[in-house]
Amino acid sequence: MRPTGALHLGHLAGALRNWLKLQDEYQCFYTIVTWHALSSEYQNSKIIKNCTFEMAVDWLSIGLDPNKSVLFIQSEVKEHAELHLLLSMIVPLPWLERVPTFKEMQRELPDKDLNTYGFLGYPMLQAADILIYKADVVPVGEDQAYHLEFTREVARRFNRLYGKVFPEPQTLLTEVPKLAGTDGRKMSKSYGNAIYLKDSPQTMRQKIETMMTDIRRKRRTDPGEPNDCPAFTLHKAFVSQDKREELAQGCRTAGIGCLECKNVVIERLDEILSPYREKRKNFKKNPKLVWDIIEEGNKRARVAAQRTMEEVRARLGF
Ligand code: SF4
Questions:
Q1: Could you tell me the pTM of the whole model?
Q2: Over pLDDT 70: what percentage of the chain?
Q3: Hey, whose CA ends up nearest to atom 3 of ligand 1?
Q4: Mean pLDDT of 280-295
Q5: How far is the CA of 180 from the centre of ligand 1 (A)?
Q6: CA 51 to CA 40: how far, in whole Å?
Q7: Which of 2, 146, 162, 277 could cross-link with 315 by S-S, CB 3.0 to 4.6 Å?
Q8: Is 100 left (phi over 0), alpha (psi -120 to 50) or beta?
Q9: Rounded to whole angstroms, how far apart are CA atoms 279 and 275?
Q10: How many angstroms from the chain centroid is the CA of residue 164?
Q11: Average pLDDT of 181-199?
């Protein structure tokens, strides 16, 4: 995850909730990818350290458990950079040029000049992040599936040239609910429409209460369509199916008002986030503890990464 800003409900619904489950099923490596952040924030690099700390606080507060998973910072394990460099020698340039997210991200972040060598190599660094731990599976949403295919191609090419070192990581496809932001567009920090995990209960309530709804419901007596309602994307991500169906029915028949409907998701989010908020307060008061936990993760990651790099260097004849 890129440390470029505070985490919002989209991160919770699309990644973190799934990561919490996975840590009971797999030996997981979760990394705060500081170098990836630099690829778009190179003109603003000083924000990365604080964002990294905030991200670590959020991860720990939401329940990622350092006793189960390895939680670490990418740039604290220098072997990622070495593997990235070595792999970049064998990857044909067109493989990178055709990555669809390269152009997409350039479009999504028009205020950044992303026409750099580092940004073009973004998937290459991602491949190194994955292969260095010989990952069997990687949880990704559909929009990231191509990156994983790219990683498999890189692994195959390395293995063909030098002998098998890397397993081909499989996609663990995660359903990423499309969450709308307060203005109805996709929830995103860059649109200024995000509802952040660290928002106080009051701020969160206020943001959701004023969030866009189906425009058909101008008056309380107008029926609406939940599938055309930006606020209802929150219900889809966080409210149980039974309750959702009941609310959808109420919306279509004008049996309930928007505030009543929104109140259900506000209360549900309060329930989900209340332990997180408590823990967050404590971690914020104790930054040393947070850095110590992450340093422990860095050490564990280094051991695994160094083991792979010894093998890689030997295969290359270095
Ligand atoms: S009742 Fe709920 S689903 Fe329907 S428009 Fe209002 S907020 Fe959206």
A1: 0.93
A2: 100
A3: 226
A4: 97
A5: 13
A6: 14
A7: 162
A8: alpha
A9: 6
A10: 30
A11: 93
